[in-house]
Structure formats: C-alpha cells, structure tokens
Amino acid sequence: MEFLVIANDHTDDAALARRMVVRERHLAAARSTIESGNMLIGGAILDEEGRMVGSMTVVSFPSRAAFDRWLKTVPYNKNGVWERVEVYPFHVAVTAWADPGKKEQSEVGGATEELAPERGDNRE
Asked: Which residues contact residue 105 at a Cβ distance below 8 angstroms, ignoring those fewer than 6 apart?
C-alpha cells in the first residue's frame, strides 16, 4: 500500500529552529527508509521565501498498520516539528525517473545491453 503524507510544521517562532535541531536525524531515518524500499520520494515544503514549513513523502508499506508504526518513529513527528499530518492512500501511476533499484535491459542482437534510465520530460 502506498501513502502520500503531507505534514505541516508548527508556526510558532521556534518552529524552524526545532526542525533544524532534528533535521540530521530525520534525514538519516529517511535514508534508512529509502534503503529498506519503503520511501519512494520525500522533501520539504517551502514557503514563498524558500523557508522549510512542512514535509511531503510517498511511502509504501504492506499494510496501514505497518505504515502507522513507521509514522510514529519519524523524527519530525515524534520531536514536535510537525503540527498537522495528513495521510492519503495513494497509487503511483507514473514517475519521471526509472527505479534505481532495477536494471533496465533490452535484448539487442541476441545480447543484453543495459539501458540508461528514461527521464520522462521528453525534452529534446
């Protein structure tokens, strides 16, 4: 099951400082979640001035219960950075990048050759 998570930070004067204190732990946890194959994409939501004010991620877990267990461990969630977390069941239909964990291959003249990942923006 895939889930879209949209989390808004608290808006008090100390919110950004709280985020920055926890940020390295949060990014380390995100890298671990990527390595386990559960996180597909994640990043910061920015305000008009480019300040981080929230987060979004798309994750995949075998069940809602497994997702809920993971969400409780997310450093921004358990350290008071996020004020509101919205969770939506989600289905990835298309992406602009190839799955880096899979080698794309094509049969060419009886030999197998590795293909470069496609970009999806179709610009020439």
From this structure: 112, 113, 114, 115
Residue identified by tokens 């985020």 is 19
From the list 60, 61, 57, 69, the residue with the least C-alpha distance to 26 is 57
pLDDT in tens, 14-60: 999 999 999 999 999 999 999 999 999 999 999 999 999 999 999 99
User: How many distinct structural domains can be found in the chain?
Assistant: 1
Helices (H) and strands (E) in the chain, counts: 3, 6
User: Which residue segment(s) compose the domain that 76 sits in?
Assistant: 2-114
Nearest CA to 76 out of 13, 5, 124 is that of 5
In a domain, 45, yes or no: yes
pTM of structure: 0.76
